[in-house]
Amino acid sequence: MTAAADKKALVALSGGVDSAVCVRLLQQQGYETAGLVLRMSDAHGGTVADARRAAKELDIPLYVQDMGALFQEKVVDYFAEEYRRGRTPNPCLVCNPTVKFSALLEMADKEGFGWIATGHYAGLRREGATALLTRGASAARDQSYMLARLKQDVLSRLLLPLSGLDKPAVRAEAEKLGLFCAQKPDSQEICFIPDNDYAGYIEAHYGGCPPGEFISPEGLPCGRHGGLHRYTVGQRKKLGIALGRPVFIKRIDPVQNRIYLADAGQDLVKEIMAVGLSETFPGSLSAERAAGVKIRSRSPVVPCRLYPQDGGARVVFDEAQRLPAPGQQAVFYADDVVLGGGFIL
């Protein structure tokens, strides 16, 4: 990295309060900054407009890049196919390494920026040549889970200025700076589905799945489901059936087009399998070890034993956990350091 590039940072700018304050903090640290906003889909017009306004207020250059085709292939198609297979995807975890951060790096290299930066609430610690991704200081806002599939090519050049802050502090900084986005609401969970009706979106763009049978805890047909894409393992509400007692979805069988139910209280598991492991640094998940694991984005980190095998891992919890949904990510930690993650079978 040249001396000039070492003081230049390209920021993923969304027009929200986090990325705007990220820019200001970097400027205060002496970095020359610019923004990059990615137009991922037709639903991102507002994001681009807000990013333009933020860049004007911050007085920085803004690059706008259309990532629609790649985003459709890597994220949207994957998202729909997973639901149609009876699995529950997390699109952000797939988007970050394949679309968002790859685009940031590509533009940074093209325009001579040594660093890239985002407004995620997570931390980085550098030990020799290795960049360690860590949890953010604010447990309530920590977003290290969402970054767990990033590798050293990204982490070694990444800056995360919000690592030591919480949301109220970031909003207060934005207010002090007079930024329009200071009280802008947080972005929705699925950025390309504005109304969050994911089942309706899949039906409109990919077609719905055929109805099939619910199978009771006793193993008998007990009703009809409306298509696998409308359900997720662990779901308790909006099943449309009445058995006279609480039940939840324990398993979805895409081959037989059946959804298997279990009685409330039977949702604990002692172990899971994770596949498609991604390491944040070489060897982080290559050996048997004690670790912490997070099996859904809003769950706590719980202790487990990790047994790597054939590109995946058997994960044995110290204490039984509520059944996670296949397709979600298991993210592994050593104290506050993110080791990587894998897709739950």
Furnish the topology, listing elements before pairings.
Elements: E1 8-12, H1 17-28, E2 32-39, H2 45-58, E3 62-66, H3 68-84, H4 91-111, E4 115-117, E5 122-127, E6 130-135, H5 152-155, E7 158-159, H6 167-177, H7 198-206, E8 212-215, E9 221-225, E10 247-253, E11 258-263, E12 268-279, E13 289-294, E14 302-309, E15 312-322, E16 329-334, E17 337-344
Parallel strand pairs: 1-2, 1-4, 2-3, 4-7, 8-11
Antiparallel strand pairs: 5-6, 8-9, 10-11, 12-15, 12-17, 13-14, 13-16, 14-15, 16-17
Helix pairs in contact: 1-6, 3-4
Describe this structure in words.
The protein is an alpha/beta fold. Helix content is 26%, strand content 31%. The protein is built from 7 helices and 17 strands. Strands 12-15-14-13-16-17 form a 6-stranded antiparallel beta barrel. A 5-stranded parallel sheet has the order 3-2-1-4-7, with helices on both faces. A hairpin with a 2-residue loop joins strand 16 (329-334) and strand 17. Helix 1 packs across helix 6 and helix 3 packs antiparallel against helix 4 (91-111). It is globular. The two termini are 41 Å apart. The model has no long low-confidence stretch (mean pLDDT 96).
